[in-house]
Write a structure and sequence with these properties.
This protein is an alpha/beta fold. Helix content is about 40%, strand content about 20%. The protein folds into two domains: about 180 residues, Rossmann fold, CATH 3.40.50; about 30 residues, no CATH class. Helix 6 links the parallel strand 7 and strand 8.
Length: about 220
């Protein structure tokens, strides 16, 4: 089972995006995909989670569009089921809790419910997508699409599951900036992607210069 995952912005601008998970990051991801006039559907198990996420997007969206200077406010809607969320979606972003067993089960369900041409992205910051792909029949459609904290921090990590279609990755590299987020591809599997690995090294060296007596903790803090 394989679909075509190569799109232009014009191909997908009138199709919805599905976000699975309505926590702090899920709702912020939904916000960014609602900035080009389209629809974002948010699925979470509890109705109050969905409602809170939709309210956040609705209230925050006008300022994000105005501050950015391009785009137009679209809409967010809560979906009562995965099937409803995924109907005709060109992209689904999974943002459920960072527990591998939950992510594996979620992807099993998404794979059964999604249209054949939907791109699959996990927002996981800890796990490469290949670890949650057992139940995904077409592994060329799955990759890491890791957001930081939009709309304040708009970098996005992309990383293949080892089999991801090259056209799919090129599509995300080209299309995501239309939504005000900017992708950077890890060219091989890397825990922590790019930025988090560099930042971890900075933190290690910060501790080292304090331990060696080169600087006081407050001096290091003051520089960052």
């Amino acid at each position: 089972m394989s679909g075509s995952y190569t799109y232009t912005f014009e191909d997908i601008q009138h199709r919805p995006v599905a976000v699975i998970g309505a926590g702090t990051l899920g709702r912020r991801i939904a916000l960014m995909f609602a900035t080009r006039g389209g629809t974002v559907r948010i699925f979470a198990p509890r109705a109050e989670q969905r409602a809170a996420a939709v309210q956040y997007v609705t209230e925050t969206l006008p300022k994000v569009v105005a501050d950015r200077g391009f785009g137009e406010a679209g809409s967010a809607a809560g979906a009562g089921s995965l099937e409803e969320a995924l109907a005709d979606a060109w992209l689904v972003i999974e943002s459920v809790p960072e527990k591998l067993e939950i992510k594996i089960a979620t992807w099993d369900q998404i794979d059964q419910a999604a249209p054949p041409d939907t791109i699959f992205g996990t927002n996981s910051s800890s796990y490469p997508s290949r670890l949650m792909a057992a139940g995904v029949r077409d592994k060329t459609r799955l990759c890491n699409v890791h957001f930081y904290m939009p709309p304040e921090v708009n970098a996005v990590d992309l990383m293949s599951d080892g089999q991801t279609d090259r056209g799919l990755l090129d599509t995300l590299l080209a299309v995501l900036p239309e939504f005000g987020v900017f992708p950077f591809e890890a060219r091989k599997e890397s825990t922590g992607f790019i930025f988090n690995r560099i930042w971890a090294a900075i933190k290690r060296e910060s501790l080292a210069v304090v331990a060696e007596g080169v600087a006081r903790p407050e001096d290091v803090d003051g520089m960052f």
